[in-house]
Design goal:
Layout lengths: L2 H8 L11 H18 L5 H12 L9 H26 L4 H27 L12
């Protein structure tokens, strides 16, 4: 065993990232936006993203990142509402065109929110009015 291997054994249970540390809060917000972007194609990563956003909510309270977390959580719930209502409409067959339009609009709206939020976060700015629809 080399000396570097001994150090790895001495620190069991330590993660390579300390997500409660301030310097990793920005990374966590980037990760949530990345998971949301991956969900544009795959869907499932959005659930992981919203879970991480809820976990980080207390850590970023009172900082410029608080608006981003609120924006991310709100994006998930409104997107999910569009998809649930759209799915119910599609299941009725008569309202299927309206359902597909709702789901399509919800998807495009989510893409817009991910791009807007990620660009603002990449510029290290706070989101103004994270509670707004647009």
């Amino acid at each position: 065993m080399t000396p570097s291997d001994d150090r790895a054994v001495d620190r069991p249970g330590r993660l390579p990232l300390n997500l409660s540390a301030q310097e990793n809060d920005r990374f966590a917000i980037h990760l949530v936006y990345g998971l949301y972007a991956a969900s544009i194609v795959f869907g499932v990563p959005m659930i992981l993203g919203v879970l991480l956003a809820y976990l980080k909510r207390e850590d970023v309270r009172g900082t410029d990142l608080e608006g981003h977390v609120g924006w991310q959580i709100r994006t998930f719930w409104i997107w999910l509402t569009f998809w649930v209502i759209g799915t119910v409409c599609v299941a009725t067959f008569i309202l299927a065109p309206i359902g597909w339009l709702l789901m399509g609009f919800g998807h495009l709206w989510m893409v817009y929110r991910v791009i807007k939020g990620w660009v603002v976060h990449s510029n290290e700015q706070a989101l103004k009015a994270p509670g707004n629809f647009w």
